[in-house]
Amino acid sequence: MDKIIIEGGKRLAGTIPISGAKNAALTLIPCALLTEEPLTLRNLPRLADIDGFQHLMNQFGITTSIQGTRPEDFGRVMTLEAPRITSTVAPYELVRKMRASILVLGPMLARMGEATVSLPGGCAIGNRPIDLHLKAIEAFGAEIELAQGYVRARAPDGGLPGGEFDFPVVSVGATENALMAAVLANGTSRLFNAAREPEIVDLCNLLVAMGAQIEGIGTSDLTIHGVRRLHGATYRVMADRIEAGSYACAAAITGGEVLLEGAKAEEMQATLHALRNIGIHAESEANGVRIGANGRLKAVNLSTAPYPGLATDMQAQLMALLTRAEGTSVLTETIFENRYMHVPELNRMGANIETSGRTAIVHGVERLTGAEVMATDLRASMSLVIAGLAAEGQTQVRRLYHLDRGYERLEEKLALVGAQVERIGDE
Ligand SMILES: CC(=O)N[C@H]1[C@@H](OP(=O)(O)OP(=O)(O)OC[C@H]2O[C@@H](n3ccc(=O)[nH]c3=O)[C@H](O)[C@@H]2O)O[C@H](CO)[C@@H](O)[C@@H]1O
Ligand SMILES: C=C(OP(=O)(O)O)C(=O)O
Questions:
Q1: Which of 90, 225, 346, 387 is buried deepest, with most CB atoms within 10 A?
Q2: ipTM, 2 dp
Q3: HSE-up of 311 (CA within 13 Å, CB side)?
Q4: Taking the complete model, does pTM exceed 0.95, yes or no?
Q5: Atom of ligand 2 at shortest distance to CA of 128?
Q6: PANTHER family recorded for this chain (predicted)?
Q7: pLDDT one-digit tens code per residue, 61-94
């Protein structure tokens, strides 16, 4: 299994190109199910999750072609074309590897009047149910059946009528599924307390480019007037605000200065606000966001929340940064119940963190020391890389398949700004 070896203590300086957003790409790709015409997505990140989603789309009879396969290219262009759907089943084998597969439920149902998708199951960061995905499309007129680990959704003859749903909890994925189900409904649908994440805005913008009629984009109340058909489009995936925030933490913990090229400050305000409170300079520039640190870090209290609050996907990376701050920080994770798996590993590197339920208390330490570490989820793995960049000596991060789900060519990007980092296969 591959591992990354980091020699800590190098100050990061220079420019890091920010890739297209994984979490946007994973909801834009299933939009290809909504039209017979080609959908071309530009700036797709090269990630294991994108490859997995491509396989899933192929399973439905959708053809996919990719440009930009030169090793030196960041980002790719994928054209998906679905003149005919040959299967409406998303099998366990593919869904198991990638939770976001559930996002085919809404568009498949909208196009074909039925969809059968394996239940994704729990995962490392928490239980992650899909009840709200199902309730929202039920409210639009679908019949749902659960059997043998699969969810089967059917629309009445003539298609989904559309309807209203008020989310009791803000859910990014359920909002996305509901939107993709509603765009081809016979009537008007309304979503209340919908998620407002920039990735949802990106999805709405693509759907509108395909001919959908959506009001309230960027707010928590969305009105979707169903249309008879959608057409193809060419669309550029938004920049990855979580990748950008992760590299901001990496630069900050080394006292470095980097330009996060392509990052959009307005989409990562909560992260930039947290960084400024920690004592980091963060400025928006024409072609990205500039991060500068002078080495001194201040403790802060942070709590995750749905957008525009602080993203849960930034919690682990900010915690790694705060291990080196002066004083004690308190972090509260309000979105997922089990998202502190990086804590024991960070403590093995010399951090001093205690957890109690959803709270983590981070007592800043003078120094971190390199260690062999591994984590069980994507952002937790990144937090170990960040700690490793500041640690004395060598850190080895294992189980890279987590990082490969969400960070395009991590070691190359870090090397660009002066990190001493190498990926090796040890088997
Ligand atoms: C591919 C993708 O975009 N993943 C992101 C998406 O995940 P995902 O869409 O899975 O996360 P949700 O926004 O749905 O989850 C938010 C909360 O709602 C709960 N919930 C969700 C659905 C449901 O049917 N019932 C329910 O109770 C979850 O357990 C969680 O406590 O948003 C999360 C929250 O910003 C991010 O951490 C993930 O990176
Ligand atoms: C939790 C994440 O992703 P996913 O929902 O794909 O597991 C993430 O991006 O941090």
A1: 387
A2: 0.99
A3: 23
A4: yes
A5: 5
A6: UDP-N-ACETYLGLUCOSAMINE 1-CARBOXYVINYLTRANSFERASE
A7: 999 999 876 777 778 999 999 999 999 999 999 9
